[in-house]
Amino acid sequence: MTISDSGAKQSTGVLSFKSPYTFDDTVQRLLAALKDHSIKVFATIDQRAEAKAVGLPMPSTVLILFGNPKGGTPLMLANPEAGIDLPLKILISESVPGHVDVFINSAEYIIQRHALPNELLANIAPVERLIAGALSA
Questions:
Q1: Span 108-125, mean pLDDT?
Q2: Beta bridge partners of 61
Q3: pTM for the complete prediction?
Q4: How far apart are CA 40 and CA 65, in angstroms?
Q5: How far is CA 54 from the centre of its chain?
Q6: Tell me, what's the pLDDT at 2?
Q7: What is the set of domains in the chain, with CATH numbers?
Q8: Residue 7 — pLDDT band, cuts 50, 70, 90?
Q9: Are 127 and 104 in contact (CB under 8 A)?
Q10: Whole-angstrom distance, CA of residue 115 vs CA of residue 123
C-alpha cells in the first residue's frame, strides 16, 4: 500500500489520515502497531485530560511520541536541529464526534526542513505505511 492509496492527505508537511475506527480503537491500534514493530513509545499525552485539568473543554485528543534511536540518531548527527522534530509524533483527534483524524509530519517534510541527505528518508518514511496499515479497515 502506498500513502496515496491510503487516503492520506498532505498539507504543509503534515499528513492526515481519516480513521474508520472509534477514537479509542484508533489510539489502541496505533500503539499496538508501534509495539508490534518494536518502535518505542516515549510518551502518550491525553491532551483532552490536560485541558480538562485547567477547566478548558477539548475534544478527544491524544499525542503519541515515538521512535527508534537507530533510525532517528543518524538524522540528528547529520543536523542536530532535526531533534526538534524527533521523536516522531502522531496526533489523534476527534474534533467532530464520530470523525477521527490522525496527523503526522511527513518524512519528506522533516528531511527537507532540516536539509538532511535524502538517503535518511528511509530511516523514518516507513512509519507512514505503518500508520496507514494500522488504520486500514
A1: 97
A2: 93
A3: 0.90
A4: 9
A5: 26
A6: 43
A7: 36-135 (3.30.310.70)
A8: low
A9: yes
A10: 15
